[in-house]
Amino acid sequence: MILENIDFLNEFNGVSVFVRLILALILGALLGIERERKQRPAGLRTYTLVCLGSALAAVTNEYICTIYPSADPARIPAQIVSGIGFLGAGTILVTKEHQVKGLTTAAGLWCCAAVGISVGSGFYYGAIFAGILIVVSLRVFSIVDKNFLKYNKYMNFYVEYNSKVFIRELIFYAKKSGYQILDLEITKDSSSGTYFATFQLKITNPSLRTLVLASVQELPDCIIAEEM
């Protein structure tokens, strides 16, 4: 690639350091914009700072190696790869419906740190290719997920209801429709007497997902029913 053929960019000097940090900032911003567009917890500023900080750490490690030739050139980057987990873990949330959110954001932050390390180490084309592929995967695979949902026979539900009559009616509805109830979990709020349930429903025709949700919502004593 062009950048690798420029000698002074492969050397450790002020210009190469500046170019690496600017490139890390640009690639991190591109990744962050994609997440910002979807209103994710970690957006433009977070991704930019992660990529820029990782690049700076890699450059700093290279600087240390120029002063102390016996130093380990992979020590700081290795710590970044493992240490970025604390930030990713902070974006993962489990809602009251037992739905996990933020896994893609956490994975994106980890990849962003890897891109920053690549830029800081002077591996320009690897960082650019990876940055492009990450953006493409985040956008394209989200479309694939939505299309796959059209053919998915499994529906995950979160339900709040007033009495056990709801469960009896749910079982009756499933048997009558030829559906299968899986992974049913029930808890009760002792103060209000309200029941909470999560379960998976295997239906026969994925095109009926909207109708099935409406049918569950209309069951007796149902307060709220949502598809997770």
UniProtKB/TrEMBL annotation:
The cross-references to InterPro entries, in alphabetical order and at most eight, read:
MgtC/SapB/SrpB/YhiD_fam (IPR003416), MgtC_SapB_SrpB_YhiD_N (IPR049177)
Chief location bin = membrane
Does the entry feature the keyword Glycoprotein, yes or no?
no
Limits of the MgtC/SapB/SrpB/YhiD N-terminal domain: 21-144
Q: What are the subcellular locations of this protein?
A: Cell membrane
For this chain, the family text in UniProt reads: Belongs to the MgtC/SapB family.
Q: Which residues cross the membrane?
A: 12-32, 44-64, 76-95, 102-119, 125-144
Q: Which domain of life is it from?
A: Bacteria
Name under which the protein is recorded: MgtC/SapB family protein
Q: How does it sit in the membrane?
A: Multi-pass membrane protein
Q: Which UniProt keywords apply?
A: Cell membrane, Membrane, Transmembrane, Transmembrane helix
